[in-house]
Amino acid sequence: MSGRIAGSPAAPGIAVGPTWRYRPRGAAGVPVVAVTSRGESELRIRRAAGAAAAQLQALATRLCALNHPGDAEILEAQALMAIDPAIVEEAVRLTRGGMGPVEAVLAAAEASAEVLAALDDALLAARASDVRDVAVRIARALSGAHLDLPPDPSIVVAEDLPPSLLAEMPAGLLLGVALAGGSPTAHVAILARSLGIPAVVAVRGLLEAVRGAAAIAIDGEIGQIAIDPDAAELQELADRQALRGVRDRAAAALRDRPAATADGQRIRLLANIRSPDEAPRALEAGAEGVGLFRTEYLFLRRQFPPTESEQVGEYRRAMQAFGPDRSVVIRLADIGGDKSVPYLGRPDEPNPFLGVRAIRLASESRELLLTQLRAIWRAAGEAGVTPSAMAPMVATLADAQLLLELRDEARAAVVASGAACPERMFTGVMIEVPSAAIMAPELARLVDFFSIGTNDLTQYVLAADRDDPSLAGLQDALHPAVLRTIAAVVAGADLAGIPVAVCGELAGDPAGALVLVGLGVDELSAEARSLDGVRAALAGVTGAELRALAARSLAATDAETVRAYAHELLDAQR
Amino acid sequence: MKSIEVEVVSESGLHARPAAVFVRAATGFASIIRLQNLTAARPAADAKSIVGVLGAGVERGHVVRLVAEGPDEDRAVETLRDLLAGLAQQVGE
User: Fold this and answer.
1) Alpha-carbon gap, residue A336 to A334, rounded angstroms
2) Is A87 an interface residue toward B (CB < 8 Å)?
3) Bridge partner residues of A19 (DSSP)
4) Rounded CA gap, A502 and A522, in Å?
5) Do residues A217 and A16 make contact, with C-beta atoms less than 8 angstroms apart?
6) What confidence tens digit (pLDDT) does each residue in A130-151 have?
7) Interface with A, mutate which of B15, B46, B50, B87 (most A CBs under 10 A)
8) Which ranges constitute the DSSP H helices of A121-182?
9) For residue B80, what is the domain's CATH number?
């Protein structure tokens, strides 16, 4: 039966192929493996452990190449755990006592995990769950790897998908992803985009609809799924893909020119980066600088905070890569809350998104923020540039004042040390907490710029956990309530004459970019790969058209209507 | 049997990446190699076991004892000692 269903677009591209249903499988779901002799048990355990280690190592290498060194590091350690003699030899010993190989591996790993968990160290407790994870993987390998991989290149269909599984699929076996759950901002969607795998998420009724289908076609750019597509539908998809190829090449050709509307209104297009290693890609994509340098990578997954000189090295590397004419906005570490780090010595919070996060850490970890600010001053002094920095989670004027105080205190310390230090630092605040948006006119008089984080702003305005897939309908940054908030922020900034940037996912979505520029946003900062699409969309419209779009969007009452308005304008360009 | 004591100056001790690098190096030797965290007074662990090495809870400033026994014990102890010093340069200041 042919048919169509729709979900949320999560990663662009078109895929056609058979479906492969992924079902989560815990340790309990691992089937019992019949074994005839103890010698065979031993051989199979060693072979399965080796296979699991090879899988994990390959996955680590791949993630490293994709610029996720933190995740790669964990997988590398897991690859060693898979062949750890403490687990493998203990499992072999247990089989000699008559235990089955799967149970033996799980029991041996559990014993090791408990040793780590008992060490009273947050970091090692996390390693304990890594050990358990590895055991399940070995157990799966014992019962046959085919259980967890599609036999042929397929579109994976599931309720939800662990991101690790997506990364672990051999290249070529995974044509696309269609999920009944998930959301475009979920980790799995971000990973699909970075792997270049088309994905559609939050498709209601997906599993029932694709049951018995020989093939499906997914279009990750518009979020559509065709079930058992006929020849005409396949032709239509091929045409669409060809058209997009033309569009993408045309967009890439615009990279040398600064972004502007058809009538010449300039918009600064910047890149979001997670590490200085991403600088070449951002420059190649035509970024005019960095609007968001996430510094969390320096702070997470370690036992002690990074030292000042370690930070200086990283910030200087980023500043030098972009040079004096392309500013790099360093965001102070957005840690605490859900991104907990052991050295902060903070208890778990029942509601981390509303907890002691980022600038709120200043009261108990003032030195952490001061160290980062000193490092930014010193790096800029060494690179010979004027630095830019901003603080996340600013909620009140007092937060902004504290930021300025810390900034000045840090500068005084650097100057006193005799190191080279610039005269000033462009200092901004992120607008993601509704109270900051409401107080925008007063906040704007204190700082040099605003940068709106639309992901968190949406989460807080609509009171919807951004990681909860059942709230996907409330996680849309194009909701008029969010847009009206942004309009108020722009109005507040205009009174003081400071620029407004947007550095959330919305800035990288062509439809979102049109609305934002119409609302008066001056700068858009997005993943490097999104810049082509945004630049091309802006080049096809006039400032007047964008202002009209923004006015209609502000008058709308739901996100779907706003998206339809923006797509009308986008489609009119073609 | 060859034995040596070293102070670990690497900033993150023997966690995460340094632990993985250390275990991979130890695995390359035929000798039986044990690592004991003297500062934390933990029992000796198999240097070829990542769980054992992580479980030793080695932090910056801790003194560890390396003991190797086997055909390549001299080289094993020297290499691993140098590695701990090298890790210090790589990870620390």
Assistant:
1) 7
2) yes
3) A155
4) 8
5) yes
6) 888 888 888 878 876 444 667 7
7) B50
8) 122-142, 163-168
9) 3.30.1340.10
Residue B51: which of A81, A304, A309 has the nearest Cβ? A81
- Please identify which residue in the block is written with the tokens 């990750």: A220
CATH 1.10.274.10 residue ranges of chain A are 32-142
pLDDT value at residue A1: 46
Eight-state DSSP code of residue A119: T
Which range is least confidently modeled, A7-11, A509-513, B31-35?
A7-11
Give the number of other Cβ atoms within 10 Å of residue A40's Cβ: 12
A306, A268 contact by CB (below 8 A): no
Query: What letter does residue A276 receive in the DSSP assignment?
Result: G
* Predicted pLDDT of residue A183: 76
The alpha-helical segments, DSSP class H, found in A27-68 are 38-65
Please say whether the structural domain A32-142 has been given the CATH code 1.10.274.10: yes
E strands of A144-255, at which residues? 154-158, 174-179, 199-201, 216-219, 224-227
* Residue A496, amino acid: A
N-to-C CA span, chain B: 34
Report which residue type is found at A543. G
> Which token pair is A246?
């033309």
A129 touches chain B (CB under 8 A): no
- Which residues in chain B are closer than 8 Å to A309, comparing Cβ atoms? 93
Chain A contact present for B19, CB below 8 A: yes
Residue in chain A nearest B59 by alpha carbon = A303
Helix (H, G, I), strand (E, B) or coil at A55: helix
- pLDDT band at residue A171 under the 50/70/90 scheme: low
Q: How far apart are CA A328 and CA A346, in angstroms?
A: 31
Task: Name the residue among A407, A403, A462 with its Cα closest to residue A430.
Answer: A403
Extract the tokens encoding B28.
Answer: 């390359």
A285-331 confidence digits (pLDDT tens): 999 999 999 998 888 767 778 889 989 999 999 999 999 999 999 99
User: Do A309 and B23 count as a contact with CB atoms less than 8 A apart?
Assistant: no
Do residues A486 and A455 lie in contact, with contact meaning Cβ atoms separated by under 8 Å? no
Helix (H, G, I), strand (E, B) or coil at A100: coil
Q: Are strands A154-158 and A19-21 parallel, antiparallel or unpaired?
A: parallel
The reply to whether B15 belongs to the active site is yes
CATH code for the part of the protein at A3-21+153-247: 3.50.30.10
| Distance of alpha carbon A456 from alpha carbon A175, whole angstroms | 31
A171: CB partners within 8 A, 6+ apart: none
Cβ(A100)–Cβ(A32) below 8 Å: yes
Contact residues on chain A for B57, CB-CB shorter than 8 A:
119, 121, 124
Q: Say if residues A33 and A103 touch (Cβ distance below 8 Å).
A: no
C-beta of residue A71 within 8 angstroms of C-beta of residue A113: no
Per-residue pLDDT, B39: 87
pLDDT category at A35 given cuts 50, 70, 90 is low
A230 near A2, Cβ under 8 Å? yes
User: Does the interface predicted TM-score (ipTM) exceed 0.90?
Assistant: no
- How many structural domains comprise chain B? 1
Planar angle of CA A331, A70, A393, nearest 5 degrees: 25
